[in-house]
Amino acid sequence: MASIYITRKIPESGLEMIKKKFGKFDINQENRVLTKSELIKNVKNRDGILCLLTDSIDKEIIDAMGNTCKIISNYAVGFNNIDVEYASKRKKMVTNTPGVLTDATSDLAISLLFSCARRIVESDEFTRTGKYKGWDPMLLLGQEVTGKTLGIIGAGRIGTVVAQKLARGFNMKIIYDDRSNNFDLEKSTNAKRVDLPTLLKNSDFISVHVSLNKDNHDLLSKKEFNMMKRTCVFINTSRGEVVDEKALVNALKEKKIFAAGLDVYESEPRLANGLTRLDNVIIVPHIGSATVRARTLMATMAAQNLIDGLQGKIPKYCVNKDRL
Ligand code: DGY
What we know:
Elements: E1 4-6, H1 12-22, E2 26-27, H2 36-43, E3 48-51, H3 59-65, E4 71-74, H4 84-89, E5 93-95, H5 102-117, H6 120-128, E6 149-153, H7 157-170, E7 173-177, H8 183-189, E8 192-193, H9 196-202, E9 205-208, H10 222-227, E10 233-236, H11 245-253, E11 259-262, E12 281-283, H12 292-310
Parallel strand pairs: 1-2, 1-3, 3-4, 4-5, 6-7, 6-9, 7-8, 9-10, 10-11, 11-12
Helix pairs in contact: 1-12, 2-3, 5-7, 7-8
This protein binds (2R)-2,3-dihydroxypropanoic acid (DGY).
Domain D-isomer specific 2-hydroxyacid dehydrogenase catalytic: 4-320
GO molecular function: glyoxylate reductase (NADPH) activity; hydroxypyruvate reductase [NAD(P)H] activity; NAD binding
Family: Belongs to the D-isomer specific 2-hydroxyacid dehydrogenase family. GhrB subfamily.
């Protein structure tokens, strides 16, 4: 019988599949991230691991898995928490959960975009605390969304869907920056591919959807925020490390941009100094995929990846099949 370790509770749908197939598994019963030494202890001599984006699966953890472990099934679409190169060297399949969270995450990016543009959180606070004394021509003026230019940084699955929803629903003009042309996006929204400086200078709204890699840490820093329009709304639902958060705090403080909506942070769950004191930022706790549907489907997908890997198949969502 396969020996399986799950680093944190995920929705029942996935756990049931694993139980049905293999009879049992071990799981971290506490509702917290395991420490490194706990991870090392628990992954030893397993055949498969199901882990979360909050587990840093580095060389040391992979070595602790030994030779028995065949598969590391990540409960996330992003897999920057895993040293995939080293896992491949040690002949371990790494899998992720793409597609099922595209709608949830794109919906959140759009919610943040509107909430920032129309100052929804500030307005709620204003009304709730009794400051609303009557209609005022100059009260809480925001930015209009319809017909404006949206710059998408990273036109993969989620970036594409954000652009399509906003182009169809709100007639936004789409420009995007990516390593290659996305012809589906161009065809469906009339989007134009531009370089990053052109995108930064011309967008009314910017939404980041890149996956984190070794080349894009601090992709958006002081220089990039300085290029944006003063009326620009900046959204990040991808990974915090692509933004120099200190530079973003300064840009917001100095009103170099209008507002920002953030779901992810550079040193999650820690926030940059000064971020919570700003009125022109909306901060939410990495909830991009946090819908019942998305999290349930992520669980069944991660479980299926694990089951396939343990049964000697290459799972459909194996990210390192060419490197094994
Ligand atoms: C992911 O899957 O990578 C998201 O950040 C969390 O669901």
